[in-house]
TrEMBL record, chains A, B:
InterPro entries per record: ATPase_BadF, ATPase_NBD, Euk-type_GlcNAc_Kinase
Protein name: BadF/BadG/BcrA/BcrD ATPase family protein
Source organism of this protein record: Rugosimonospora acidiphila
Domain ATPase BadF/BadG/BcrA/BcrD type: 6-304
Pfam families for the chain: BcrAD_BadFG
Domain of life: Bacteria
């Protein structure tokens, strides 16, 4: 019976598991509920993982699995020995004979973009962080402190700056902006036809009534205003890109030439306002190819193939990477 | 029977009410629980106000009260007609024949510092805002957006910057600082004897486990580190003062010479690290006397005297102000 491998992507919205042969050819995929142990709790996330692994293995002998690599959003929670044991048990309960390898989502995202062992990852979605990758492991990170403490240049940050710009325009301490129309329209259920001091209070109260991370939902309004030429939105995008490139600079070593992997809704597309600016600043400041990752599950499967076939050449593994990621 | 006035200070921790004669001589004081309608809810805050007013009036005929001025922290909540009615009823329930005048805590704090009608207030405690005062009313404000959206240079901001500096030092992306010892000591119940990636996660998790405003409690560690010569803490205090003076500049008009009133734990003392820096920057940039307010209740009583005695000269009222505020 041929060897099998498992690759998985445990994210905030779903847990996805792929079963492949040792050449990385997919045999089965399965999914279950959100698997981020930090946001969902380790016990709930581990239970979802157990369900998804069992589904993916349905009809296959679990003892044929030679390696399992799981990329985990919120992997910091697995520093807790109790949480790590729950995750080990969730996979072990399927009858696997190998111990799974839990990596951070950053490591798996990086490996989904490139077979090269060392480079830099910028992740800018709701949050923002950069990671220095060496031998496919995160060696150092910058920012990623969360919305309360940092994540400068993230979707959350863009939304918060949009509200700040609106409040400054209402107060008369900042320039006029089209965001003054669109942001309160998204936050409130009635028009802002009140005097300034009431409008400012209504906006602050509307933001306070929602979970703070919901501010990330306003980032799209900044992008729309920027596309329409709004100067305040343009300045917000300029500052976001400057923050993100500064964060990259905190982990990227001088003279480094490895790939620069951009992931997350704020920077993934080269056509988005911040993604465009970040690429321009990167070209001015750093050497190295700019890449975006394929689906995280491709990187996880590829890492599992590497683990199952340590004797294979890098050329052979790179060809499998290209096939898995559609490159 | 001689006329009476009421002055009150409704804050987050207590509701304090003073009864005085028309010359501002205090006859009775009373207090009740927190009276901030934004943080406590309008019904609970109004109930505490009703209790405190009744206590202050105990033994006096409420129909003798000619004016009542109440300074309200979180006064924006009274824009809601339902909340305003609850507050009116809470005072009216004591049998007062006059309608109370609800002012913002900023207006009362300003009037507690000076009898002059126009100037600038900087409030920097847990939050931070500046107000342009004209004829003893707030005409414009800057910042005061709350910890989620702004309050740059506030106690919250100082505490957050302290944690950010610790995370950067742990990550190796920022300079070493003595805060790396003191801040985690305050946040965690065990020493940080773990590898860097675990320490960073432990600090972020400890902050996330508390209410965000609890970060303001770390501001004192910044002041201690600054006093001991820590360069990172010094830089945080420099930036806090620059933020606060920029916020003043957003409401203070060019050439304005009215008093500059500093209130709140971050700036009140001229010996505190941020208070010292703010005074130095103010002296460089603005004309006008720098003052700190007396107890807010003094300003409220004085404004009630003004309302009860519109025919009195400013000289006479200024003398009453000096007596009430101990100036």
């Amino acid at each position: 019976m041929a060897d099998l491998v498992i690759g998985a992507d445990l994210g905030g919205t779903s847990t996805r598991v792929a079963l492949a042969d040792a050449d990385g050819a997919l045999l089965a995929t399965a999914s279950a509920g959100g698997g981020n142990p930090t946001s969902h709790g380790a016990d709930r996330a581990a239970a979802e993982l157990g369900i998804a692994v069992k589904r993916a293995l349905d009809g296959f002998d679990p003892r044929r699995v030679r390696a399992a690599v799981l990329g985990v959003a919120g992997a910091g929670a697995l520093d807790d020995p109790g949480a790590a044991r729950l995750f080990d048990e969730a996979v072990g309960g399927s009858g696997l004979a190998v111990r799974p390898d839990f990596l951070s989502d950053a490591e798996v995202a990086y490996c989904s973009a490139t077979p090269r062992p060392s480079g830099t990852l910028l992740l800018a979605g709701t949050g923002a962080k950069a990671a220095r990758v060496r031998d496919r492991r995160v060696q150092a990170t910058a920012d990623g402190f969360g919305w309360l403490l940092g994540d400068h240049g993230s979707g959350f940050w863009l939304g918060r700056e949009a509200v700040r710009a609106v409040l400054a325009a209402i107060d008369g301490t900042g320039p006029e902006t089209s965001l003054t129309g669109t942001v309160p329209g998204r936050l409130l259920d009635r028009p802002l036809d009140r005097p300034a001091y009431r409008r400012r209070y209504a906006v602050i109260r509307a933001v306070a009534a929602r979970p703070p991370v919901a501010l990330a939902g306003l980032a799209v309004l900044v992008a729309e205003a920027e596309a329409a030429g709004d100067e305040v939105a343009t300045s917000i995008c300029d500052r976001a890109a400057a923050h993100l490139v500064r964060t990259i600079g905190e982990v990227r070593e001088p003279g480094e030439r490895g790939p620069l992997v951009l992931n997350g809704g704020v920077v993934r597309s080269p056509h988005s306002p911040v993604g465009r600016r970040v690429r321009r600043l990167i070209a001015e400041r750093f050497a190295g190819e700019v890449l975006t990752p394929a689906d995280g599950i491709a990187g996880a499967v590829w890492l599992a193939v590497r683990a199952a076939r340590p004797q294979w050449s890098e050329e052979r593994l790179a060809a499998i990477h290209a096939r898995l990621t559609g490159a």
